[in-house]
Amino acid sequence: MKGRTAILKEYFKPMELLEYTVPDPEPGAVLVKITMAGLCGSDLHTWRGDQIKRPLPPTGRPMGHEGVGVISALGAGVESDFGGNRVKEGDRVIFSAVFSCNRCLACLNGDHNLCDQFRLNYRPAGGQHPYFVNTYADFDYLPPGHAFFKVPNELSDESVVSLNCAMGTVLQGLDSVQIRQGQTVVIQGVGGLGQYAVAFAKDLGASQIIAIDGQAPRLELAKEFGATATINVSELDTSEARIQRVAELGNGGADLVVELVGLGELMPEGISMLKPGGAFLEIGNLMAGRTATIDPVALIRRKRIVGSAMYRPSILPRILDFLVRNRDQMPFDKIISHKFPLQGINEAFEQAEWVGRSTPVIRGAIVP
After folding, report:
1. Domain identity same for 144 and 176
2. In whole angstroms, what is the distance from residue 211 CA to residue 260 CA?
3. Pair (262, 281) in one structural domain
4. What number of other Cβ atoms are within 10 A of residue 280's Cβ?
5. 151 and 181 both lie in a single domain
6. What's the pLDDT tens digit per position in 239-288?
């Protein structure tokens, strides 16, 4: 059996679809046939070459990490998922996008997302066995011991396709700042991650959720997920005006501001939106070298800055439960605004690109 996989051989150039023989899973491994893959912002960073400051392997880098699929083959000894549910070929599953060493102190503490070897120990170059180590492909090969979970039948591919990156990353961040009921939360940027942040904040009991973005359709969608107020940056186009508006809406300011745009200059603005004792959660900035200027006095009244990246794999079944509970209350399928076939992956990246322009793509998906 043959399968295709998308390989990036040169930054900011079209990817190649290469074909390889699909390997049989070794004992403990799982071969997943991808049914839908998410077009994550970090993949766009990688495609541009502005995130990973090292040359690509001569044979290229396999692309894609978000996705959902069905079990194509089970290695010897695999009878259940990591939640204890019995599995068989044909079952739909999601899997962790966190590949860690399982041997360092971070991993021993359960912080697999903080592993120094995260993703480096299991991302072989293109053309190396087991070939399919990505989701922009027909298959994804999960090595022995890698976390995966069965997807409830009532959930669509669209609702779970971004679970193993965007949703996991956002919920892990909210856990790290210990969001509480009755708080006022500001979401800076309501693309895909921002929509999920609104939904989680609503589910966790936030009383006021203020969504900030420059695109009216995204702000309207945020209201469907639970945003109680919106700020359009094209209308309130100064930092001072936005800070003042948050103070008006939040009875003096916000308890939590979540940055999901990736602009360093939003940090001082977000900190200025906080009430005393509030927290600024940084998730969106993935690129080294971006700076922000902060007056330390702004932090004196027990304000916190918290950074968060990826997630503990144990968070994934919590999100499945969240999606099942809210499937009739929140329009998760709408976050996937555009779909592309695998052979159209380069067109997908061109349409989703946001640098220097506005894009209608909230979050794209590749459907092999």
Report:
1. no
2. 11
3. yes
4. 29
5. no
6. 999 999 999 999 999 999 999 998 888 999 999 999 999 999 999 886 77
Q: Are residues 201 and 281 in the same domain?
A: yes
Using CA atoms, how far residue 362 sits from 110, 216, 219, 252, 316, in Å, is 32, 12, 11, 31, 22
Check whether 358 has a pLDDT greater than 90: no
Please check whether residue 95 lies inside any domain of the structure: yes
Residue 29 in this model has a pLDDT that exceeds 70: yes
Judge if 259 and 272 occupy the same domain.
Answer: yes
Determine the 3-state secondary structure of 348 from DSSP. helix
Write out the residue range of the structural domain in which residue 269 sits.
167-307
Determine if the pTM surpasses 0.70.
yes
CATH of the domain at 188: 3.40.50.720
Q: What is the pLDDT of residue 118?
A: 62
Q: How far is CA 31 from the centre of its chain?
A: 22
Take residue 233 and report the two structure tokens written for it: 């940056």
Phi-psi map region of 292: left, alpha, beta (phi>0 left; psi -120 to 50 alpha)? beta
Distance CA 72, CA 232 (A): 45
Amino acid at 113: N
Q: Which helix (H) or strand (E) holds 188?
A: strand 184-188
CATH of residue 78's domain is 3.90.180.10
Alpha-carbon distances of 32 from 18, 61, 300, rounded to whole Å: 18, 19, 50
Split into its structural domains, the chain has a count of 2
- Among the listed ranges 80-84, 135-139, 281-285, 346-350, which one has the minimum average pLDDT value? 281-285
Whether the ω angle into residue 130 lies within 30 degrees of 0, i.e. cis, is yes
Give residue 320's Cα distance to chain centre: 15
Domain co-membership, 156 together with 249: no
- At residue 121, does pLDDT exceed 60? no
Q: How confident is the model over 70-82, as a mean pLDDT?
A: 98
Q: Is the pLDDT of residue 99 over 90?
A: no
Q: 343 — phi, psi (to 5°)? A: -70, -15
Q: Which two tokens stand for residue 56?
A: 């690509």
* Dist. CA 50–CA 54, nearest whole Å: 10
